[in-house]
Specification:
alpha+beta; Glutaredoxin; Rossmann fold; 3 domains; 8-stranded mixed β-sheet
């Protein structure tokens, strides 16, 4: 076998075949690397490797076309088959020679990895999985194309056959998404060399994927041996009506060869069927038990301890509907759904075509939301609750403070799905009621606040206190978003009764709110120790760390340590921005029935400015009140009936509803903590960290040196070809 391998390697590099393969492969891959990586300064090597994998389809025939077909064309095949080397060793030796050249091409692409490592960041474990899938896919194509070379009479015919078969595999892979018959689509997907490679490109080490590639290699190597063996033991045949001049012994030998061929065919069929059965079983076991190992750079499909605990303690079954058209699936989401189903026998899911399931969509539609394409419906039949997640639920945004542009800062697949599962399976869901009817911010304005709490297992409702039929439930939280009109006597009675039974409040109180004309609402604030001041809080120009981007109205407050904020401060989630805030008097010592504490505080040198319609001077003037000021407070009040009523107030409604503030700061964590405080819930463990979304970009100096290095690769192959082939021609 070693002699066969050496002979074939000489055939590759003492002729132009090997150099053509390496040269074309490296030229195309270098162009791809420049366009996809260097030109865009991207560190996304897996996507680049995925694009390179299509080169196997195009170039594998170059490696295999002469392996067997050339032997037949030159009439050296019989000499080779009668040599002392066994037929399996001959075939395997030729195959290993082609794979060696394939491995050389793969190894040379590590120069691209080196460039990314120098100017950016490489994730070795993920990269190893990417390259494993890339190399195994190439080996599978070589095995298939070598078999076709054994079926062809000339190298050109072998190349055409191999390219046609490779191209057909690609077409069938595309056809899978267009076929409506599910069993046909499953067969096509099972046979796809491209679909199998997707998990490796995601950094998922798929043992069933490795087994499939090895099975394809073994199957076509075996078929090649079988094909050549049939040719070797095949006898002469005669036309009907002509006498066979063979002797009795020759006829007996011929009959023996036929029995051998039939036995070999039966063995080949049995091996093929066994390989298919083993692969189907391995794929199902891997999917059911979650055996794929996650080596992706951001551990995108790895469950956190919080998710594991949530799934272990599920009390009710959950079923999820992934509304995706075939071919448009969100690959990380599909991988995660398999992991959820593997982690708990109470979690199941299925993929459905939205256009083919209008009844399902209608079933889960509400007045404000209709599930559409690329949605995920998380449903618990026993509680009757569901939650619909869309693409916007899987990303967290951050804002570039220099350009003002939003960028994806992380993937929140796990956070959103786990929160949805916890919400739909909960026996009782806490409710946040946003009060309307007094000029408050409307539902469209508070949509981000609404969505944030809904995503964190709270039920959101809207209620009008002016409705005589509405009576607040003390188990809820009433949210007043900067009302502009006072509460009447009947409404105040409702609110007082609500508070006496232990109901809780969240207030926003902007500096523009006409509190002087709202004595009832002001009295409600004061009952919790919230004493609003007239005017806007401005930062001192000299205290640059207390305001944002040169705008002294945009305050960066200090987060004070209370039972509500302690874990936020400990985790570093204490960056808050208040774009224009009212101030409150800092709470003094209160009686044992009322405990009020400051959550957010201005800088010590801040001051209070009374702004009129024509006021433009933001400098401190005589008479302006000096800080520091409370900008947000929390309170507990023991009612006359022995209940504990809780309240929070913040002097800037914009902080709770502004998308830019959400993207730039930790206000979302603070909002969730406030909701939990007001409902007397333990701090949520479901604040699962977002997974990193983007690999670090390459440095600005990478394009020039990188382009030179990648251009040198095909140039080096060309130079080697000229030196070797010119030297051999002179002999």
């Amino acid at each position: 076998m070693k002699a066969i391998w050496k002979r074939e390697m000489q055939g590759y590099f003492y002729t132009a075949t090997g150099y053509v393969f390496l040269g074309v492969f490296l030229t195309v891959s270098s162009v791809l690397f420049y366009l996809e990586i260097l030109n865009q300064r991207s560190g996304d090597l897996p996507t680049f490797i995925g694009e390179m994998s299509y080169l196997w389809m195009l170039l594998s025939p170059v490696l295999t076309m002469r392996l067997l077909a050339e032997e037949r064309q030159k009439k050296t095949d019989q000499l080779l088959m009668t040599s002392p080397v066994s037929l399996p060793r001959i075939v395997i030796g030729k195959y290993l020679a082609a794979v060696t050249v394939l491995l050389m091409a793969t190894a040379l692409t590590l120069l691209y990895v080196l460039i990314v490592a120098i100017y950016g960041k490489v994730y070795p474990a993920e990269l190893a999985v990417n390259y494993l899938g890339f190399f195994l896919q190439g080996c599978a194509f070589v095995a298939l194309d070598m078999f076709l070379s054994g079926c062809a009479g000339t190298p050109v015919t072998a190349a055409v056959l191999a390219f046609g078969a490779n191209f057909l595999l690609w077409i069938l892979d595309l056809l899978e998404n267009a076929v409506h018959a599910e069993w046909i689509a499953e067969v096509l997907r099972f046979c796809s060399l491209y679909a199998r490679n997707e998990s490796f490109l995601m950094g998922q080490l798929s043992f069933s994927g490795i087994l499939f590639d090895l099975s394809v290699i073994a199957l076509f190597v075996m078929l090649t041996i079988y094909k050549l063996d049939r040719e070797r033991i095949g006898g002469r045949t005669y036309r009907i009506g002509h006498k066979d001049p063979a002797t009795r012994e020759e006829k007996q030998a011929r009959a023996g060869r036929k029995r051998t061929r039939r036995f070999s065919a039966a063995v080949a069929v049995a091996v093929a069927v066994s390989l298919i059965a083993v692969n189907i079983g391995a794929e199902q076991l891997e999917k059911r038990n979650g055996w794929r190992a996650d080596f992706s750079f951001n551990s995108i499909s790895t469950h956190s301890a919080v998710t594991k605990d949530t799934l272990e303690n599920l009390q009710h079954p959950v079923h999820m509907y992934a509304l995706f058209r075939k071919g448009d699936e969100d690959a990380p989401l599909m991988e995660l759904l398999n992991r959820y189903a593997a982690a708990s026998d109470k979690v199941t899911w299925e993929q459905l075509e939205p256009s083919l399931n209008p009844a399902l969509i209608s079933r889960f539609a509400t007045d404000t939301e209709t599930p559409g394409e690329n949605s995920l419906i998380v449903y618990c039949e026993e509680t009757g609750r569901w939650r619909t997640l869309g693409p916007e639920d899987y990303v967290s945004l951050s804002m570039n403070t220099e350009t003002g542009e939003y960028t994806y800062s992380g993937w929140t697949y796990e956070r959103s799905i786990t929160n949805a599962i916890a919400y739909v399976t909960r026996e009782q869901v806490s409710r946040i009621v946003i009060v309307q009817g007094h000029g408050e911010l409307d539902g469209e304005t508070v949509t981000h606040f609404d969505g944030l709490l809904a995503a964190n297992r709270f039920e959101i409702a809207y209620a009008d206190l002016t409705d005589p039929d509405y009576v607040p439930d003390p188990g809820d939280v009433l949210v007043f978003f900067s009302p502009q009109k006072d509460l009447n006597e009947e409404e105040m009675n409702k609110v007082k009764a609500f508070a006496e039974k232990g109901g809780s409040f969240l207030f926003t109180c902007d500096y523009t709110d006409p509190l002087a004309r709202m004595p009832g609402y002001t009295a409600l604030l004061r009952s919790y120790g919230f004493l609003p001041l007239e005017g806007i809080v401005l930062a001192d120009r000299a205290d640059s760390g207390s305001y944002y981007n040169g705008n002294r109205m945009y305050l960066i407050p200090e987060m004070c340590s209370t039972d509500l904020t302690m874990d936020l401060i400990g985790s570093g989630a204490d960056r808050i921005l208040l774009p224009g805030s009212r101030g409150f008097e800092e709470p003094e010592d209160t009686d044992r029935n009322l405990i009020t504490a400051t959550l957010l505080k201005s800088g010590d040198t801040a001051f209070l400015k009374q702004l009129t319609g024509t006021e433009t001077n933001l400098e401190k003037a005589e008479g302006d009140q000096d800080g520091p000021f409370a900008l947000a407070l929390q309170a507990r009040r023991i009612t006359g009936e022995g209940y504990v009523s809780r309240a929070c107030v913040i002097g800037c409604s914009g902080a709770l509803v502004n998308e830019q503030v959400y993207a730039m700061t930790d206000i979302q964590q603070l909002i969730v903590r406030m909701a939990e405080f007001l409902l007397n819930l333990e701090a949520s463990d479901l604040e699962i960290l977002a997974k990193e979304a983007i690999r670090p970009a390459l440095g600005t100096g990478s394009i020039g040196p990188g382009a030179v290095m990648v251009a040198a690769l095909p140039a080096a192959v060309l130079l080697a070809a000229l030196l070797v082939l010119a030297r051999r021609r002179r002999r």
